[in-house]
Design brief:
The protein is mainly α. It contains eleven helices and no strands. This is TetR/AcrR family transcriptional regulator.
């Protein structure tokens, strides 16, 4: 939407967009999805209604943008190609990226909105799954498939393996936060949880150097 605009105008448009999504998240949490209007969001974000409508013509479009931006703001889970052939280093990098992503308060807030409004607005759950979690999940699954093809790992069921790996991390980093307002594990504890998940994955799917030399 900002393509072709001068740099100053692009920066201003980004700031307004960030203000709108931040205001929407705040109001969705306070008043619920149904109880929050675009007019309230514009007022909270200190932007005009026309500015908001240009970027987000509907409340559903705004929520979908929030989901997409939250999930895409983290590093690309396929980035650890900088550790070719080193499954431990790559899984450790992916695990820490994922822990950082889902450990942000904004991510927990997004899940709370979806859970609270799911009975009346199931489309919010679909947006969270199809625009956010699923693309991230698939990218990690593709990484494991590539390692299987390269002989770095033996992963006959990459989908299950991805569920196991991400689930072990989310079970410590994200889900307690949904029930415990003061849940804020120290970075060292998060790192330990990731390391344990990686060790479990290596024990189940890793190949030793001797294994790789076998025909």
């Amino acid at each position: 939407m900002t393509a072709g605009l001068p740099a100053h105008h692009q920066q201003l448009a980004r700031r307004k967009r960030e203000a709108i999504t931040a205001a929407a998240t705040k109001l969705f949490l306070e008043w619920g999805y149904d109880g929050t209007s675009l007019a309230k969001i514009a007022q909270e974000a200190v932007v005009s209604k026309s500015t908001l409508f240009k970027q987000f013509p509907t409340k559903a479009a705004l929520f979908e943008a929030i989901v997409t931006e939250y999930w895409k703001s983290g590093p690309d889970p396929t980035a650890p190609a900088t550790h070719p052939g080193d499954l431990r280093a790559s899984l450790s990098a992916i695990g820490r990226q994922y822990a950082d992503l889902i450990g942000r308060p904004a991510m927990a807030a997004l899940f709370r909105i979806v859970i609270a409004e799911l009975p009346r607005f199931p489309e919010l759950g679909r947006a969270q799954f199809e625009l956010g979690k699923l693309p991230y999940f698939i990218s990690v699954q593709h990484y494991l498939e590539a390692q299987h093809a390269a002989g770095t790992a033996v992963v006959p069921d990459p989908e299950s393996a991805t569920n196991q790996f991400l689930g072990m991390i989310a079970n410590y980093v994200l889900w307690p936060r949904m029930l415990l307002a003061d849940w804020s594990p120290a970075p060292a504890d998060i790192g330990h949880a990731v390391d344990e998940a990686v060790t479990t994955m290596l024990a189940r799917y890793g190949r030793s150097a001797d294994d790789r030399q076998q025909p």
